[in-house]
UniProtKB/TrEMBL annotation:
PROSITE patterns membership: TYR_RECOMBINASE
Entry keyword Cytoplasm: no
Pfam families in the cross-refs: Phage_integrase
This protein's record includes keyword RNA-binding: no
GO molecular function, one term: DNA binding
Gene Ontology BP term (one): DNA integration
SUPFAM superfamilies in the record: DNA breaking-rejoining enzymes (SSF56349)
Signal peptide (residue range): none
InterPro entries hit by this protein: DNA_brk_join_enz, Integrase-like_cat_sf, Integrase_catalytic
Protein name: Tyr recombinase domain-containing protein
Key words of the record: DNA recombination
Length: 189
């Protein structure tokens, strides 16, 4: 079974962001939100403009039914501010039409399949060969949070609804990294 992977390479993340910013503002903001907030894709797609106007994203988590809050960092805030200007609070943040573009009429969100197709199209266009899926956004968030702040495992365990810190490491791809590099570890006493 092939599991989807996080995007480990920061340069690849920048390349994807630049490509999306130049080609599709909605997809750019979706990507930035996905890798900076770590929400499950169904929660991300259910967000409305009013949910992201403050300092936190507030949403009812589909998996648990609980109200959740996630801080909005500077990168995400900048992308959101430009994107939501002039839009009503009740509008879905990531609207679509039949062409997968932002719709000016109606108010239906993108579906998960559309996001999957978009992410894979962009990844292949940019030469990324890892298995990419909608969970890639959330895994990328977790992977880079772990790399920057290893003490955050307990928090990710709660966010991702996993039973152990080992499951978190598996989910975000850190175990794969250890397996791939295990022959490089040397103890020199």
């Amino acid at each position: 079974m092939n599991f989807v992977q996080p995007i480990r390479d920061v340069e690849a993340i920048v390349e994807i962001k630049n490509y999306l910013k130049d080609t599709n503002e909605r997809d750019y903001v979706l990507f930035v939100a996905g890798i900076n907030a770590g929400l499950h894709i169904s929660d991300l797609l259910s967000l409305r403009v009013g949910d992201v106007k403050g300092t936190h994203i507030e949403f009812l988590e589909k998996e648990t039914g609980k109200l959740q809050r996630r801080a909005i960092n500077n990168t995400l805030k900048k992308a959101l501010n430009e994107f939501v200007t002039g839009k009503p609070d009740g509008e879905y943040l990531f609207k679509c039409d039949q062409n997968g573009k932002r719709s000016s009429t109606g108010n239906s969100p993108m579906d998960i399949k559309m996001v999957f197709i978009m992410l894979n199209r962009v990844a292949r266009r940019l030469g990324i060969t890892d298995n990419i899926g909608t969970e890639t956004l959330r895994k990328t968030f977790g992977y880079h949070l772990y790399k920057q702040q290893q003490h955050s495992l307990w928090m990710m365990k709660e966010w991702f609804h996993l039973k152990s810190e080992l499951e978190v490491l598996r989910y975000i791809g850190a175990i794969d990294d250890l397996e791939r590099n295990k022959h490089d570890y040397v103890l020199d006493l």
